[in-house]
Amino acid sequence: MTVTMNVNVEAQAIEAKKASKQLMILSKEEKNEALLHLADVLEREYESILQANEKDLANGREQGFTDAFMDRLSLSKERVQDFAQGLRDVAELEDPTGQVLTDWTLENGLQVEKVTVPLGVIGMIYEARPNVTVDATGLALKSGNAIVLKGGSSAIHSNEAIVKVIHKGLEETKMPKEAVQFIASTDRAATNELFTMKEHIDVLIPRGGGRLIQAVVENATVPVLETGVGNCHIYIDEQADVEKALNILINAKTDRPAVCNAAETLVVHKSWLKEHQDALIAALKEHNIAVHGDEHIVDTIPGAVPAGEEDWANEYLSTDLAVKAVDNLTDAIAHIETYGTKHSEAIVTEDQKAADHFFALVDAAALYHNASTRFTDGGALGFGAEIGISTQKLHARGPMGLPALTTIKFLMKGNGQIR
Fold first, then answer.
1. Which of 54, 69, 159, 386 is in Cβ range 3.0-4.6 Å of 151 for a Cys bridge?
2. How far apart are CA 81 and CA 77, in angstroms?
3. What are the distances in angstroms from CA 190 to CA 75, 102, 250, 298, 365?
4. Residues facing 322 on adjacent strands
5. Looking at the whole model, is its pTM more than 0.70?
6. Residue 7: its pLDDT value, please?
7. For residue 341, how far is the Cα from the chain centroid?
């Protein structure tokens, strides 16, 4: 499906930049009132959103999209209500801007403050999740940022309808509707244009599959807050409790297989596997998990198929699972370091020294001891919401909530001091 419209990306970015200046002078109360009003309008106008969503779903059925993909794309009255509640939750959060992080006075009497301020204009590039349109908008506006949205072609009608409702709601608040821009085209040229607008866009945030993220990172001249693909691992150590291990594995793999914090690879100690293989096999069978394993796993788990090199690096987003048997913790860490995406990694063990070693050596945004990787989520960690999960190391790492959408200014207050 190709939808080409008469869009002027540069003009939209310029409008967003102008609107960002207006956002910076709004009070916390005015921003919160606007978000609460948007929530009410979304709930009131849900039918228009669902009508547009049906066009995208019909196209998805025609194109043969996977069940997991269709689930991410599909909207309902309840999901729109969840969007609205998300905005209300964000309104309740502490305003991340205007906070004095530290202050001091120089010997000459000059007062120095380090304060948080909005980034300015955020360019959001994402794929088949209409919820991102609302989540990203809410977080941007709460933190005083304008946003330019470029959603994927598969959700073009849903996203356009959502933004139309958002604009309708903003017209009844003190927030300028120009602060939310939607690029209503599936033409890749529009996306590429957004990559290079350093004078109007302050940061790009890609959210989606590996190819999308890599395309942004490799081609953008605008600074990028890189969100990551989730090839997440569960390592079951020799000293793992069997009940904990199986509960954590099944939750991480099957709770929502199509999300980035779901487990894609099980790394298991051979000694633990030998002792508990019947319990593991039963759990995998009960939950219809398809195993792609190394030679040892194929010999141990009935129905397992040989894993190729691509399986160890694959983000399945399904109930497929790569399984690797190892002799020790060192081999487990080496496998994770080779194939992991620095997103979320977990160790299940009753050996505290092993857990400490894992935490010290594994390089990832989120590490877990005896817990599921599914907690790598802004809402689950108490952030209220997130705009993405960063796997890079500069500016922000892990689930990015409101503080990640701010930068700093140094404010110096004097009384005629000169140098």
1. 159
2. 6
3. 26, 41, 41, 47, 31
4. 265, 292
5. yes
6. 77
7. 14
